[in-house]
Amino acid sequence: MITQLIKNGEVVDTSAESNSSSSTSKKSGGSLDKDAFLQLLVAQMKYQDPLEPTDNTEYISQLATFSQLEETQNMQASLQEMEANSLVGKQVVLRVTSSATGETSDVTGTVDSVIHENNKTYLMVNNNLYSIDDLYSVMDDSYMDAISLAKSFSLAIASLPSADELTLDNAGTLTNLRKAYDSMTSYQKSFIKQSDIDKLVKLEEKMKQLQAAAGENGDKTEGNGGTEDKKDTEETGKAE
After folding, report:
1. What InterPro entries does its record include (predicted)?
2. pLDDT tens-digit profile of 35-82?
């Protein structure tokens, strides 16, 4: 059941016919359906020359051609229906031309359901109906996974401070990001921005410097503590 959206007291046309009216009008002018074929055949019989009527064999041949055309169209409709049903749950890109402005835009989303109505097939994407004629491409699951990983990785890199503001508290985050990147496949790594990789490497180098400096300070503190303990021991011995 297709419902209408009411906005500001007016009915908003969100039907598939509205979203794909441009592409539909282009296709309707270049194809000959079975009804048009039958009308042409009837007109030929009606206006034939009575002195030279068309041979019955030719009519039979044309009727056979008509039957083949009908079977072909039915087969195409069945194949289109099967194709549409197989799209449920997949990520698709729809190229839609607005009937109001004539502008073409791409709509990306998951096919939630398929609706067959009036010998037409519609895809439910982002809670809107689109004609299957607007289908531009179907995206592979591995492609979508790679895109999602790249976005998450980029956001994590962007949340890190600059090298000048980096502290030892960021060590755990850097380690996790390095592990995440190294666990990716070559295909997934190809979607990672080079700028994100460069920032990760730069921060890792800075972290090594911070950790090295922290280690040296720790050694100095321990060294000073040992000297003071030695002095205390010597003073205690003298007092005795």
Report:
1. FlgD
2. 777 787 788 777 777 777 767 677 677 777 777 877 787 787 777 777
Structure tokens, 196: 């994100």
Quick one: which of 128, 207, 227 has its CA closest to 165? 207
Helix, strand and coil in the chain, % to nearest 5: 60, 20, 20
* Vertex 77 angle, CA 73 and 110, to 5°: 150
Distance of alpha carbon 123 from the chain centroid:
15
Q: What is the pTM of this model?
A: 0.49
Domains present along the chain, CATH in parentheses: 82-138 (2.30.30), 140-214 (no CATH)
Token pair for residue 71? 């079977």
The single-letter code of the amino acid at 86 is S
